[in-house]
């Protein structure tokens, strides 16, 4: 198996987190960045909007440059998309972070809260996939 | 320059998701399928991202302040409470159902809008519900 794309892509994600901290002094946590736009109204949203614009535009730019879109296969149906979306949103706000904030940034700081959160969401995610793929579908 | 650097960070983050394949929910689910057709490559994405970030953080935090802001805003909490664990557990379940976490969902929305927008709409409702609920309850 070729691990080069994984290591290169991961390094770019790490570098992005460094840029956010070096320039704005912030943790690059995508769930927190998104949730910031929901009521109650908060200040200091311009850097968050620009970050999300970069996230949104990169795949379209890739499509334009490479000539084909990045491979994205979503097998879930609408009820699964709705229920998963809701608990991802609810869980990341309640647990103060997701894969980027707790996983990439928190583990780099060896934050105890982020270590606990990352171990927890990895375990429940693996268990969920196990149940959906191997228990329910035989 | 401040705004350009933040845009660049988002662009770089998203490009990393594309190159590593983490933008693709099917690949994420294969990574989480430890007891099936396991694709371990995304473990190397996390490892590389954490390693690069950890080294960069050491260098950056030698400075007194970030380039375009008065101070570093780094979480200082260390308490492990029920909210943290229940929230993370819920997030993991949702991640395991579809294969989307918040970053890749925002990255994928321009490429596969139909299904991704449904996920994001529900995610925003979930976020708002948690925000509203945590502000009106204590602990």
Descriptive tags:
heterodimer, A: 138 residues, mainly alpha, 6 helices, B: 139 residues, globular
Shape call of chain B: globular
Radius of gyration of chain B: 18 Å
Estimate the strand proportion of chain A: under 5%
Helix content of chain A: over 70%
Number of strands of chain B: 0
Number of domains of chain B: 1
Secondary structure: helix percent of chain B:
55-70%
Principal-axes shape call of chain A: globular
Model regions low in confidence, pLDDT < 50 over at least 5 residues of chain B: none
Record field, number of beta strands of chain A:
0
Sequence stretches where pLDDT stays below 50 over 5 or more residues of chain A: none
Task: Give your account of this protein's structure.
The complex is a heterodimer of chains A (138) and B (139). Chain A has helices spanning 4-24, 30-35, 46-66, 78-94, 99-108, 112-135. Chain A is globular and about 45 Å long. By secondary structure, chain A is mostly helical. In chain A, helix 5 (99-108) packs across helix 6 (112-135). Chain A has one domain (4-135). Chain A has six helices and no strands. Helices cover 68% and strands 0% of the residues of chain B. Chain B has 139 residues and is an all-alpha fold. Chain B is globular, with a radius of gyration of 18 Å. Chain B has one domain. The model of chain B has no long low-confidence stretch (mean pLDDT 95). Chain B starts with a helix and ends with a helix. Chain B has helices spanning 2-20, 25-32, 41-60, 82-98, 102-108, 113-135. The interface between A and B is large, with 106 and 110 residues.
